[in-house]
Amino acid sequence: MELKRVQALAFSCLPTETIPEEFIWPETEQPAITTYKGPVVPKIPTIDMSEPNREKLVQAISEASQDWGIFQVVKHGIPGDLISRLQRAGREFFELPQEEKEAYAKIPGSRSIEGYGSMLQKDFNGKKGWVDHLFHKIWPPSSINHQFWPKNPPSYREVNEEYAGYMREVVDKLFGALSLGLGLEEHVLKEAVGGEELQYNLKINYYPPCPRPDLALGVVAHTDLSALTVLVPNEVPGLQVLKDGHWIDAEYIPNALIIHIGDQIEILSNGRYRSVLHRTTVDRNRERMSWPVFLEPPMDFVVGPLGQLVDEQNPPKFKSKKFRDYMFCKLNKLPQ
């Protein structure tokens, strides 16, 4: 079935109580059944990045990265107005006619992840996520291909370039704190994932209203390939993380950034920091959107457990390999 017909079928907003079979997940993964509803629901840690006591800030980030693999940051330095403009530009793009959005579609046969598309590829169990997306790089300049940056709305390029500038400052602070939390010098972790060649991959996830959000998922449970993921959500809840065997909803905090520890940081820390298992749910009446930036090494950059963190008592738990090879194995569900 061609892409447009599938999208029209999958993302129809018609008042119906049914969705196509390929979007209905097994009971073991359906949100209505598996979301934690206990009397006291644990909350993802929230960290104030303006904390003047550096040691206290480092400890909070380190503990959250070990215990949860995810945390939210407030007072991070990115203006609330800029976040609103970023969200507005992304929303306006997804409100365009389908033909206009497809002008930015991923190039057929390309190995690149950049471009507009739909997560309509089947998982190995034959199920699909209820989501559209736009993917492109925002840093470093040598990696940017403006072919995939929408020209409409006209503000799109300006706001994303401004956001990338602020994002770099936040990312440097996060890597510094994570390094110090491992007893390393401040620069170590960032350099270990590429330094100034670190790739900033922006993705806009668009989850249309779904008539049966109890049966569907936006994105199935996964950990991120990245070193870190820095995410801006909209006001519609949907991010869930697995904590102590339970799926926990992430609280919406206006203008907060949600920080995911990704696979590469888990590898570098030899398992001391953990890559968070997470998934997304959808809403019956509202559109959910998110703006994650995936911070990834260059493709041929080798990542492995840091020598400072391994010894006879703590042998390497992961193999060192090129990020390209790690990505290939993970996407194709091959042993690492």
UniProtKB/TrEMBL annotation:
- Name of the protein this chain belongs to: Uncharacterized protein
Q: Which domain of life is it from?
A: Eukaryota
Keywords linked to the UniProt accession:
Dioxygenase, Flavonoid biosynthesis, Iron, Metal-binding, Oxidoreductase, Vitamin C
The record's comment on protein family reads: Belongs to the iron/ascorbate-dependent oxidoreductase family.
Please provide, alphabetically and separated by semicolons, the GO molecular function terms listed in this UniProt record: dioxygenase activity; L-ascorbic acid binding; metal ion binding
Q: What organism is listed for this UniProt entry?
A: Punica granatum (Pomegranate)
SUPFAM superfamilies given in the database record: Clavaminate synthase-like
**Would the keyword Lyase turn up in this protein's UniProt record?**
no
Q: Name one Pfam family in it.
A: DIOX_N
